[in-house]
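Continuing the series of single-chain predictions for the mutant panel. This is the parent chain; the variants come on the following pages.
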Amino acid sequence: MGNVAPQHHDIESLSREEAHKLLRAMTVRELRYTSLLRRAADLLKSLPPAATGNTQQQIATTVDEITSALDTTEQERFAFVLETMQGAFLQKLAQDFPTLTPTELRLAVFLRLPMPSREVARLFSCSVRSVEKHRERMRRKFGLTPSENLTTFLASRD
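Parent structure:
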């Protein structure tokens, strides 16, 4: 898969629709690569002890490298793109609804795209039920009625 994101200086020139498409594509890519790397690290950790200490050391080093990669590179770029494209939305939302937690603010961005709870749960490394509970709390904080859609509400806020 090629480089999904444009250069940093190009991001600000994107239309809202283009920015949402880019963020969705980066999110899906991040989910896919993160999941793949986690599975690889888990598989390596579960291997039976090797015959030589050298092989064990190589496996441990590889697991450390995977863990380090999960903590940096793509996630840093992803965070930059997220902040660049959604920073004003997040600031306004936090100002208008000061009781929102940092997790709820991050969640608002992905629900606004829209992204299904299942994908958001994978991105946040939590259960779908946790995402659903956050959605319920956010609906209460926004004062939404049962007939009002949370995603539509978030998408309409500029």
